[in-house]
Write a structure and sequence with these properties.
Distance between the termini: 42 Å
Structural class: mainly alpha
Number of helices: 7
Helix content: over 70%
Strand content: under 5%
Order of helices and strands: HHHHHHH
Length: 115
């Protein structure tokens, strides 16, 4: 199920970038059939492949967070940035709500590590 959601999101980002599956495959260094299989949810890309696909469609940081979490990859980095990435992937939250929550998490995190 998660692969299908991630595949749909990848297809949307590819279409937003106005490139074909063949163009995306060429830019990411994989086959067009692999792109098709990822977009339909038949295959799950590795983190490295997903990073190449993200760069190939020139996804924003927010779209990249959504893409990685859609394929069940935990964002890397410090805890507040991981939480921010997961919150940005939540379709029920507006960007303003996400930023308010992230701000609270960052403040609490800083207090906790400085105690």
């Amino acid at each position: 199920m998660a692969n299908r959601d991630g595949g749909r999101l990848l297809a949307q980002l590819r279409q937003k970038a106005a490139i074909s599956q063949a163009d995306l495959a060429s830019r990411a260094g994989i086959s067009r059939s692999m792109v098709a299989q990822i977009e339909t949810g038949e295959r799950k890309p590795s983190r490295k492949m997903l990073q190449a696909l993200r760069q190939a469609v020139n996804a924003s940081d927010q779209d990249a967070d959504r893409l990685f979490t859609a394929f069940d990859f935990i964002p890397t980095g410090q805890t507040p940035e991981q939480v921010a990435a997961l919150l940005r992937a939540d379709k029920n939250l507006s960007s303003e709500q996400v930023e308010r929550i992230v701000s609270l998490v960052r403040e609490a995190y800083e207090r906790a590590i400085n105690e």
